[in-house]
Amino acid sequence: MAEKFSLSKFFGMNDEYDDDYAEEPTPATKSTPTPPTRPNDSRKVVAMRTAKPNASHIAICEPRIYSDAKSIAKQLTNGDAVIVNFARVDEAQAQRIVDFLNGTAYAVGGEIKRIGEQIFLCTPHNFEVSGDVAANLGTQVTR
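The chain above was modelled as a monomer; its predicted structure follows.
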């Protein structure tokens, strides 16, 4: 009678267990590994660059159309000061933008100041501005 074909016999593997192999007994209790200890070093490590949580930010904007006032107002409501240069808009548009920013500054408890012929500084409540540049706009310094 013909012997039954088996893949394990074809590849030389025996179906019987190898008696030489013995399983290692498993320990009943496992020991938890201890973390490696560092040598006691008295020096302190300090980061050179630290983040400033209360860092102030001043943005500079030059609006060209009235709809640019929305992005300026968003920066103001986010707590950033904004310097606005109205050199590229006509006088009527500039007046509308200043009126809008006046309302925004009032809403956030801030203020708006003229610091140049066509330049305004809009600040939220957490900025303090000292000095008055607008009083000196009409006078020129001659040497």
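The two ends are 125 Å apart (CA to CA).
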